[in-house]
Specification:
Largest sheet of chain A: 7 strands, mixed
Helix content of chain A: 40-55%
CATH topology of the largest domain in chain A: Rossmann fold
Number of domains of chain A: 2
Strand order of the largest sheet of chain A: 8-9-7-6-10-11-12
Oligomer: homodimer
CATH class of the largest domain in chain A: Alpha Beta
Shape of chain A: globular
Distance between the termini of chain A: 30 Å
Largest interface: A-B, 61 and 61 residues
Number of helices of chain A: 9
Number of strands of chain A: 12
Radius of gyration of chain A: 20 Å
Order of helices and strands of chain A: EEHEHHEEHEHHEEEHEHEEH
């Protein structure tokens, strides 16, 4: 959906490489939890189902992280990848739509564990406006643009019904949001400087049924 | 994560092409809802952010669906894509893990609207076993293999904590499941005949922060 290649700091890294960095990070965190201190592209490859050559090539876009024969220091590589992905700071996140899904997302502890703090909630249902979830008060859509601008929030999670998804995305963009995690089953139209990632469980299931025997 | 190319009925279609078919289907459904009867690769391209050449090439893997100059009959193309993706039948789905996320998924109406009926629920929490959600009784993990085998269920949604995700996936595979929609933030190890699609909102957010200014 996104451009396959994007430039950042004059450096061109294929989008697909950037997509894999969070998976490396996830594996490194697991390895560290298991008490390991050093790993290899081969070990990461086995865990992730990629080839070790691909892992080495992906990482080579960003620098030299390991030594031939001694592998990678897990803590160091983890810190480096976090810095590359701008994860050494905490991000404020706005969550729009506090229905069943939005509610579950508001309570999903992994967001704050991983440095994404949901600091603003929005919904258009009068019954929900004013409600407090995890210490954050639900505001109306009318307050969205000003409130997000004021707080300087750049990341939003969109969990609204399809029919209001595009107009809500337009407001988010107007408010300065530059990254949207979109749960509405629709392809959003946004300016090129805004990144969108889509989560649609139906599309994932439909892809797999292609391979399923009836 | 999955193989980039898979064979089905002796036909080789790149995995990435299969991934896009559900998005075409989603757009066609929207167009039909808007009262349209005919569309073009150009119109689909604009809506999806792909090139029209790519859409024509993707579809050409499966046959001739449109006529030069007259475009695609939406209803016909939709039916064809549904048949290609095995969506002209209803699929039974097992949902494992009825925590906050699993609960929201069990109530997500779009699954059954799109032909994925959640007919089995599993959890290991004694407080949840025996509970009824949307007419389906939550069973224990101990009953999983036999119950799924007996019902002939081939698709499962995995919404359990990381620490039990792999062992649960092993049980699902043993029970005959061939497609797993995995919400646990871990790369599952499964035999080649089993497809896995991963949904990890953190990985999606982390990919976007790469492009975000601090």
């Amino acid at each position: 959906m996104a451009d396959s290649i994007s430039m950042k700091n004059g450096k061109i890294v294929p989008d697909i490489v950037v997509s894999r960095l969070p998976l490396y990070l996830r594996s490194l965190a697991r390895l560290q939890e298991e008490g390991k201190e050093v790993t290899s592209s081969q070990e990461l490859a086995t865990r992730l189902g990629f080839s070790s050559a691909q892992i080495r090539k992906d990482l080579s876009h960003f620098g030299e992280f390991g030594k031939q024969g001694t592998g990678y220091n897990i803590a160091f590589l983890r810190e480096q990848l976090k810095a590359i992905l701008n994860l050494d700071i905490e991000w404020q996140v706005a969550l729009v739509g506090v229905g069943d899904l939005g509610h579950a997302l508001a309570h999903y502890g992994r967001f704050s564990q991983k440095g994404f703090r949901i600091t603003a909630l929005f919904d258009n249902d009068p019954a929900k406006i004013g409600m407090e979830i995890n210490g954050v008060v639900v505001q109306s859509h009318d307050e969205m643009v000003e409130s997000i601008k004021k707080a300087g929030i750049r990341i939003a999670i969109l969990a609204v019904p399809v029919k209001v998804a595009q107009e809500t995305a337009d407001k988010l963009v107007k408010a300065g949001v530059r990254a949207i995690l979109n749960y509405a089953p629709i392809t959003l139209s946004v300016p090129p400087e805004v990144k969108v990632q889509n989560i649609d469980p139906i599309a994932h299931l439909q892809k797999m049924t292609y391979y399923c025997q009836r």
